[in-house]
Design brief:
The complex is a heterodimer. By secondary structure, chain A is mostly helical. Chain A has 17 helices and no strands. Chain B has 2 domains: 1-30; 31-133, Sandwich (Immunoglobulin-like), CATH 2.60.40. In chain B, 25% of the residues lie in helices and 39% in strands. In chain B, strands 1, 4, 7, 8 and 9 form a 5-stranded mixed beta sheet that branches. Chain B has a 4-stranded antiparallel beta sheet with strand order 3-2-5-6. The chains are: A mainly alpha, B alpha+beta. At the A-B interface, helix 10, helix 13, helix 14 and helix 15 of A face strand 7 of B.
Chain lengths: 280, 135
Amino acid sequence: MTLTTSIIQTRLAAASRNERDNVAQQIIASATPAELLSLDAEAVLRLYEALRMLPPLVYSDRDRAAMKRLAAESQFKAPKTPEFGVDLVRTARAGHPQIQRELTADLVKGIYAAEKKRLSWLEQMGVDGDTIGRGQLGQPAYSDVGKPANFKAELERCITHAYVTRIINAQASPAREASLFDSSYSFRVPSQYAWAVTYPEVEDFVVAAYLGLRIESASKPRRSFKDTARFAVALYHGMRIMVVDAQKAVNNEVDWAPVETQLRSQGHDDECDYVNEVVK
Amino acid sequence: MTGRAWAAAAAALVLVAALAWLALGPGRFQQGPVLTIHLRCAPAAEGSLTVWITPAAGAAVRELRSDVRAACAAGQLQLQHFQDDADLHARLVRSAGDASDLLARNGSDIQRDRQGYFTVLRINASPPYLANDRV
């Protein structure tokens, strides 16, 4: 019988509290690699709890060995990033061709590089303003990403992956995330971006998702995919008002090239350079 | 510190607070989130444009009525006290008497960026006279 969350729950519940770590060891030892890889967050957390959190609270060498196999063979490993976050967004917007074409790991890395070049000396010293992290986003952007109509479900998946990965890979002392899951073995999404941004894969996801929102709002008929990405990045960089004014001045609301020419004529070279550094 | 020194320190504190209030502007504390409605108008666009917001809770409705030519010349309208879950309604009444209605939905037509909430409305000289647009 294939190992499932329900089977794990039943077997652990049938054991006395002092025996649950032994049962968890047996479950992990007898599972195939494919079964371990298919376990969801709840299943992994139930095993973790039995091995490490329940009485007698002795984390034995055998518990440690079982946890090591669980960490090595479950899906909860440090992901390749920013690809992990980009893929979550692209999968959620499978029917949006501009996102499928233009939202890439390189676009996210381009944002990071362009923002890093433009950090003030205070920001370089770690004194942040309204925007934080490698992507220099703020709390409103994080809130928008987490709205149900946007990427709430994907943000929850990303947070869960980040937390469970840290929990089962903790060595000497339990990870701080081990105290964050509730009785239904799920996590609350942090309300503050300042907390979320401390997890690199979560920041990568939030930046990718916010870029996805900007690409959606920059997509319109007759605009090329590449220009859609350029307008999206301009909006990401806070250039909306100057872009709208430039569009009006050149009487062109579709193409980027005349808008860039107009912006440069007004001295907005650094803003245009930002867009061109990110969208190649 | 003597009583006179305390009084002087308190007065200085009040003066600094008053100066900060004036420097930042009272509106900074009172206006709340602003929705900017960027207008894109056909040269022949005319009539009157009324916009109002409807929060999800359905309570407050704020309305702004403008002459289309004046609004188009300005290029934008701004609504104060915008709420994160609110939609925008717009009604264009042309001098011929016909009316066009439009709904701009929050999250799709209404977006937020580093400069605040915004949406783009197009006023055409032929049907549809009123349409949502994007930057």
